[in-house]
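Incident review: delayed structure delivery

Summary: a single-chain prediction request sat in the queue longer than the usual turnaround. Root cause was a stuck worker, restarted by the on-call engineer. No data loss occurred. The affected request and its eventual output are reproduced below so the record is complete for anyone auditing the incident later.

Affected input:
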Amino acid sequence: MKNKNNFKAFIKYFLLVVFAIITLFPFYWMIASSLKSSFEVIQTPPTMVPDKFMWSNFSTALAMAPFGRYFINTIIVTALSIVTTVVIAILSAFAFSHLEFKGRDLIFSIFLASMMIPGEVLIVTNFKTISAMKLMDSYTALFLPYMANVLYIYMLREFFLKIPKQLYYAAKVDGASDWKFLWKIVVPMAKPSIITICILVGINSWNAFLWPLLVTNSDNMRLLANGLTAFQSDVGNRYELLMAASTIITMPIVIVYMFLHKKIMNGISIGGTKG
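Output delivered after worker restart:
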């Protein structure tokens, strides 16, 4: 029995290692290619480790395109997206969990049903709305249509529902308003879920591609993902520069996820489990 359990454990960890290598290899190849010379990066058979580390590829890539501007744009849009999405999610979740009003459950059910609609279906409508509001090529256009996210509202609502009603009634007896109860009691208790939402919104905003491509026209308003696409057409077959630019764009969000992935998992499990 002991040998059988050891064999099962060996198979389990062996498969985990194999899948980890498959997952991480593209990232390693991107970084390794970014440090190769223009000849070595297309060499056959390919080299797994650069013969000479070409750190100058990063400075060359940064000099060929305004990645500094792209970084600023992406940081601004990410920050605005996080703030607006989290505030709307908190207020909506509190309304659907603690406030009593006619049609509350029906409205929330409709909200949940809207999650089945693919986001691509709404792009044309959102584009026409942004164009009619004359917001094209602006920061507002980049985050406005996605401020309200039903998934995040649902996550917070499930957490808010676990807060005992007696606590709410006690706060009302002490003279606390709904607004004060929300920000002084509910929000601090929901900190893990809120942090998770901030991280998820930040990742989605950082990696946004299709929508920013549609609503921006000038180079000054490009985000990192769009800037990388334009950079690809500029450098042509200079793959080492393209990999260097990809590494510059990818590594910040990878590092953030590496440090905060436990908070993401904890927040999702807390917010998605009721009772």
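Verification: Residues 239-272 form the longest helix (34 residues).
Action items: add queue-age alerting; document worker restart procedure.
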